[in-house]
Amino acid sequence: MLPTMETMRGGIVDLMSSMRRPGKASRNQVLPKRIGEYHTMPIIIDATVLAATAKRLVFAMIEDFSEGGDRYACSSRENADTCERARALVRVVTYARAVTTTLSSMATLRVLILLAIALEFGDCVEPVAQRVTDLLKQMTVDEKAGQLMHVYGGGSEKLKFVAGWGSFPGGETPERMVKTRNEMQQKMMNQSRLHIPYGFTEETLHSSAPGGTVFPMPVTQGCSWNASMVELIATAIGLEASAVGITVGFTPVLNMITDPRFGRLSEGFCEEPTLSAAYARAAVAGYQGDNGGGPATYLDGSHIISLAKHYAAYGAPAGGLNAAPSQISERTLMEYFLKPWRAFAMSGGRGAMISHESINHIPCHANGELINSIFRDQFNFSNGITISDCNDIGVLTQYRVANNNTHAGAKGLQAGIDIDLMCGGDPSKWSYNNLLDALKDGLINESDIDTACSRVLTAKFASGLFDNSMADPAHVSVLNSTAHQQLAYDAVIEGLVLLKNGNASGERPVLPLKRQNYVQSPDDSMTIAIIGPNGGCSESGSKCDSVQNMLGPYTQYNGDVTVKTVYEAAKDSASSSDVVKFARGCDIDNAKTDGIDEAVELAQQSDIAVLVLGDSLGTCGEWKDRDSLDLPGAQMQLLENITAVKRLRGSKTKSVILVLINGRPATFGPNNAILKDIDVLLVGFRPGQMGGQAIADVILNGVEPRGRLAQNWPNNVGQVNSGSSPWLQEIRGKWVANGRSGEPDPDGRYYDDYVGSPAKPLFYFGYGLSHSTFEYANPKATKTQGNNETYIMDASVTVHNNGPADGTEVVQIYIQDPVVNHVRYWKRLVGFQKIFLAKGASTTVTVSLRTDDVAMYDDEMKFRVVPGEYVVRFGGHSGADTQTVAITL
Q1: How distant, in Å, are the alpha carbons of 745, 806, 874, 884 from that of 778?
Q2: Given the DSSP bridges, would you call strands 420-423 and 149-152 parallel, antiparallel or unpaired?
Q3: Could you tell me which of 422, 499, 430, 420 has the C-alpha nearest to residue 456?
Q4: Which residues pair with 812 in a beta bridge?
């Protein structure tokens, strides 16, 4: 049995107390300043006095471990603290066993003192800040500059300095990746005079490394309205990433993308600041561990540094085009776009990548006000690390705000960017490679380099790189574990959104599926057609982008992880008497219609036609922006032909189910008229490796999809950035005065319609259907009791399941602000809670509202809760918050 810390310390107390000189009672006074001095520390006691105690202690420990010390060298990443302690003790005791029989009494005593200090003071590690200060004093300016360079995609031989960072290497297997990573680490440490370890980064948006679990993308996670689920996913990714030796994960993406034309929408959680802030806090706790200590505290071995992207306001580019300029008022920037960044920094986030674009004519990579004054000072990011996006410091020359790369490097460094992400192997695009030239030209001071290098070293010490620079190949067993696969499946169910559930005439819901609606007797065979380019692979396997479209971009996937398509999962999940067939129908990236006739013929012969459509990585992703939201390729024609099948004489088809595997909201032709012929609309966005199985279970096995939209879903592309976002747009006073759109929404909001089409959204933010229905009553709002700075108000409402089945509901709480001297939003989301209610059951839901979520920037741009009357609104989505109560704060 592993000795407890208390048992071991009991024998050490005598040894340690004997070491202390009279009058020096503090245990810290006997510790040397540097770990490296332990083996040479002077002995200030009589060896004879301690010999018996010391030898008795070490031999007792040897005896404790002799019968099975090896079994304490744990390979499991679970119970990490116990395993690491056991492994360290085995090494120390093995060493002590050897030296005590060969060394002199004085040398033996030094070993025993080292052992005693390791056990007694193991939790008193030297502070990160002190270690950084000590190391920085020993470094040359060249060595400091090298720590500010990150090589991405080759070219390290073209650097003027030894780089401090690099991207995580690929490999055929996780074990091979770790081996390559360790070889690279050893090479880089050998090149470093002070043996400073190399930092490894990776895109860990929703997966860790090749061979690791591929979770749903953030857009699907965002639709879960479940911050605990987001934290669990981040914890799992952090564990897998740390297992292979990744230091920093480029995640989470905190961009709130308000324009669905922008191809990177799937990388962010949502377009709403309160929900995004909740996910930011959850992600920090998951990736880094919830120690709350900030960048200068030690992470444990199962977590990584969370470096969020892309600071800031990257989700509102002009025209929906990547890296286009953003024109945003100061109030909207601070209150809306920077809110999740404030939450990230305040909860201990340790890193940030700066975004491509300019905000109000200032490129973000040269914006010291944005990075230093707001992020570091106001938001308490302080000594967190910042990194450029690929070569973007050099892009300052293309913005014509810098003369050359030397000038650009000086601007970037003084703006607060610590690391230059140098991509592509072309040094003509790199900037920090020229930092010494900038220093020589007087554009920067050495103190500027010191400040950035200090933050970089802080990250390296805190992550444990200096204490354990090599990754252990044994740890890769945690990748894609059974538990993580189950978590990935649960996350899909939590994020799938049911937007329509009922046949064209509005009769009974189609889901959960009832066989008696399709076959005359239970023994009869039911035929299910899976149709569409995102539904499966062709029989020849020559075309199979459906897997990649489920996984999404920025996925660490090398084929080692099993990913079932919807077709494959449906075959496995269907009753043995049922028949499941597949037809691709068309492609996404081109307009070819060759396969539509085959798909129509299959649909006619089937009881249920399941269309799996959406977009591809070629039509939605980074630099894949569109000027239309209609389904790309020939999918609209396929959809029209399949929905018409039910009207054909002799057709068996009774239900048409549309599943979207997509990276952005889609529209469906003129006035979306074709949706009336769809019986079920289920949205998966990018559901990850378990997406096919989860979708099949929802359709065939009665599993309830539990998601709600985390984006506003426009009627057409012309609605983008119009007045169709109820919580997002400022109040349009003239619309309210004129009552332009006839009947207002339940919350009293009017819209100004376009000629020939409505201005209201196709589907509201927060919308989604359950297997049941719910009603709300008894709204209440009370001030939080006591001196609580985190929460200001408790909001409660009674929810009753009045529908036909058990079901999930997301209770959403909005507020309307008091009268102030500037125009406010129509309403704001301030809280939410996801619940499950049995049929006929009722419950009172109480949500403590955070002060940060109720606060606003006042007329003088001070962030506070403005005194006045607030109207608190409750409902199941942003257009249905009908229960209200007023409270004065």
Answers
A1: 21, 22, 10, 9
A2: parallel
A3: 420
A4: 832, 875
Are 555 and 206 in contact, with CB atoms under 8 Å apart? Answer: yes
Place 159 in a pLDDT band, splitting at 50, 70 and 90.
confident
- Distance set, CA 852 to CA 273, 792, 877 (Å): 11, 9, 22
CA distance 349 to 857: 23
115 forms bridges with which residues in the sheet? Answer: none
How far is the CA of 219 from the CAs of 111, 309, 494, 764, in angstroms? 55, 15, 12, 16
What digits encode the pLDDT tens for the residues 837-867? Answer: 999 999 999 999 999 999 999 999 999 999 9
The pLDDT, as a whole number, for residue 148 is 97
Q: Give the per-residue SS3 of 191-220.
A: HCCCCCCCEEEECCCCCCCCCCCCCCCHHH
Place of tokens 């606060």: 855
What's residue 321's pLDDT? 96
Rounded mean pLDDT, 461-471: 93
Contact between 120 and 12 under an 8 Å Cβ cutoff? The reply is yes
The pair of structure tokens assigned to 791 is 């929460």
The CA distance from 202 to 247, in Å, is: 8
Nearest alpha carbon to residue 856 among 273, 380, 369: 273
Residue 646 pLDDT: 87
Question: What percent of the residues of the chain are helix, what percent strand, and what percent coil, each to the nearest 5?
Answer: 35, 15, 45
- CA pair distance 475, 467, nearest whole angstrom: 17
**3-state secondary structure at position 528:** strand
Q: Write b or e for each residue in 326-360: b if 16 or more Cβ atoms lie within 10 A of its Cβ, otherwise e.
A: bebeebbbbbbbbbbbbbbbbbbbbbbbbbbbbbe
Peptide bond into 312 cis (omega under 30): yes
Q: What is the DSSP letter of 676?
A: G
Interacting residues of 506 by C-beta distance below 8 A, sequence separation 6+: none
DSSP 493: H
> Per-residue pLDDT averaged across 670-677, rounded?
94
Confidence band (pLDDT; 50, 70, 90) for 757?
confident
Residue given tokens 């510790």 in the structure block: 31
Nearest Cα residue to 149 out of 202, 186, 191, 198: 198
Quickly count: other Cβ atoms within 10 Å of residue 35's Cβ.
14
Nearest CA to 875 among 842, 839, 831?
A: 831
- Whole-angstrom Cα distance, residue 492 to residue 691? 6
Query: Which segments of 416-558 does DSSP mark as H helices, in order?
Result: 435-440, 446-463, 482-495, 546-551
Question: Is residue 665's pLDDT more than 90?
Answer: yes
Which pLDDT belongs to residue 254?
98
- At 782, give phi and psi (nearest 5°): -135, 150
Q: What single DSSP character describes residue 581?
A: E
Taking the CA of residue 98 as centre, how many other CA atoms within 13 Å lie in the half-sphere pointing to its CB? 5
What confidence score (pLDDT) does residue 755 get? 86
* Contact predicate 216/206, CB 8 Å: yes
∠ Cα 605 566 561 (to 5°): 150
Collect all residues with Cβ–Cβ distance below 8 Å to 555 and sequence separation of at least 6: 205, 206, 207, 214, 548
DSSP string, 498-520: EEEES-TTS-S---S--GGGT-S
* Lookup: tokens for 10: 């009991």
Least confident of 182-186, 208-212, 731-735: 731-735
Distance (Å, whole) CA 474 – CA 568: 33
Structural tokens at position 591: 């307009």
Closest listed residue to residue 258, CA positions, set 311, 160, 337: 337
Residue closest to 485 by CA, chosen among 561, 567, 570: 561
Answer for the pair 566, 612: CB distance below 8 angstroms, yes or no.
yes
What would the two tokens of residue 468 be?
Answer: 């354990």
User: Could you tell me which residues are beta bridge partners of residue 528?
Assistant: 580, 608
pLDDT digits (tens, 9 = 90+) for 706-729: 999 999 999 999 988 876 676 677
pTM (predicted TM-score): 0.87
